[in-house]
What does this fold into?
Amino acid sequence: MNEAEVNAPPTSLAGLIRLLWRERLTVTVIVALTSLVGVSYALLATPVYKAEVVMTPAGQRQQSGNLAQLGSLAALAGVSIGSGGNSAAALAVLKSREFAEQFIREMKLERTLVEDFDDPKTKRDIRDAIRRFVLKVRVVSEDKKAGVVTLSIFWEDPEVAAEWANAYVEMLNRRLRDEALDESERNVKFLGEQMAANGVVSMQQSLGRILEAEMQNYMLAKGEAEYAYRIVDRAAAPKLRESPKRTLIVLFSAAFGCALAILVTLLRSGVVGLPMSSRATG
It folds into this structure.
């Protein structure tokens, strides 16, 4: 093989291999550098762990007596019974930004979520903490077929991730339970006033049945800690990190280095990136 054939641009796989072998020093340096960058990132990147709480919606509470038949009458009386057990409403609160803010404030996580929270130059505030929490820390997924809701918390400390996940669900149950109890107390007070003010016996009997059902719902809610969601599997501190995926990062960086080395070699050989006139002149 003469020198002209060796230096000719590759027109086949064999020609490309010969070209890469001739430029093996360049190829080796590029692949080594990109692989080194990948390894460095994989080792230095902050590990993130995922803690999960698996739960099922508590659903609408069982209501005794003739409440189903009295639903229209309760609505006319301005009373909403059993709304606290609605699973769709509970899921909406679980995913809401407003409840995320409540959790962050009660747990005092503003500075934890935003490292430079107190730096006046960056002008960070609670909104930055909420944004990070909603976009990167808290993930809610629902399996409608299985009837399961999963809350995932991603954080750098596995113990903290599990603590936050469990506390998030507990706080949600407590909030919805308290709201339901407040609503029941208002309903009971209102129904008592209506019964005292109404002299019609049949109306008093109907209101009495609604009041009895409301009292039963109140007692059930008061004695039930897992009001909106029943926990199937509490979060435990994970042993394995969720990210970074070190093996994948190293493999990707090596593959990227190979592709970059081929591109650089082709550019140097004049196969890619040069006008046809320049090639002809050369």
Remarks:
- The chain has twelve helices and four strands.
- The CA atoms of residues 49 and 241 lie 5 Å apart.
- The first helix runs from residue 3 to 7.
